[in-house]
Design brief:
It is a single chain. The longest helix is centred in the C-terminal third of the chain and has 30 residues. It contains 18 helices and no strands. By secondary structure, the chain is mainly α. The protein has a single domain, classed as Growth Hormone, Chain: A, CATH 1.20.1250.
Length: about 400
Amino acid sequence: MSSRLPFALLLAGIVAQFADKLALDTITLAATQAGATPRLVGLLVAAQSAAWLLVSLPAGVVADRIAPRSLILAGGGLMLLGSLAGAALLASGQAGWALAFSAFIAASGPVIIVLSIFVLLPSRVAVADLPRANGRMELGRAVLSLAAPLLAGWAVARGAGALGLVLCALCGIAVMVAALRQPAERPAAPARQALHRAIAEGGAFVARHPYLRPIALCAIGWNFAFFAFMALFAPYAARILLMEPGAIGLASSVYGAGLVLGALVGPALIARMPTGVLLVFGPASSLLGALVAAAVPAGFGWAALAFAFFLFGFGPILWSIVQTSLRQAVTPQALLGRVSATLTTATFGMRPLGALAGGLAGEWLGLELAIWLPAAVFGLSTLAILASTMPALKAMPEGELSLQAAE
């Protein structure tokens, strides 16, 4: 088994996640600049992220049964079609249900691609090297995520938000080209099961596992909180902190800086620090960032938002590298797609719910009060890890030992 991550696979994962982030930043900023209500901004964010809720489970079953190359190709095609449709709608000034639907189609691509890569990695990389491999993936994603809000802010400030989605379409083409470099072999054929039974098997494994269960609960809360914040921060920054679109984009781009730094120092920290400490630090750092963003006076708005986004990037990327590697280490190969899909649905599926909650809270409670909602839920996310046995985990568990603990 090789410890090297194939370049084409790395490229597909990085580009897909960059396009997902760029589309989110472009849509929220363009809608806000066009005068959309917080409810509509929340709807657009929810639609863009609903793919993680609706597509993950069936895609996870398929990922355990067919060649990953086919899934990555399909994901790139969805990115291309959805992004081109969204670019045409933005260019014509439409920011309603049609734009929301196109965002859903485009976002379905990264869902499928990320699941496929999660299944492929343990067959290509030794368990001891999974944190390093996942760290490389996160580093590449972080570098491009640093550019996403800057590109979106630059384009929207010049009335050309559609350009951001055109770039997402080009990313879809790049993913399809990278997919052609992947092997065509299918995974070992599992016993045939009805779709609902196959999905239930993955969910049951997560629910009874002593490590995967608290990870799922923590990630559920974190994703709900982060996307509630994403639905609120652009209107909050523009209307309460009185910031210009370019400044908002610049502040949110610090998220990418946090990701980059976290991915760079991640392997060294993971090698030297207890696993449990890193699993607590991720959600706790997000809680601190949200509290600062909510409490700051208008005159310090840019600095507070930049600090918050830095923490949203730095702590959670360390958490992501650790928990992704742990999931891959403790999950049987035949269940990798379904376990990943279960966790993806339960966690990333909170994105549309969080976005809708943030948008509705902003409209019903006012932006100044609603901005405290993400902080409260980040607190619950941190508590989910603190209340489990995870803080005492010293190192990455071996697969067989952790499976015995789960039984």
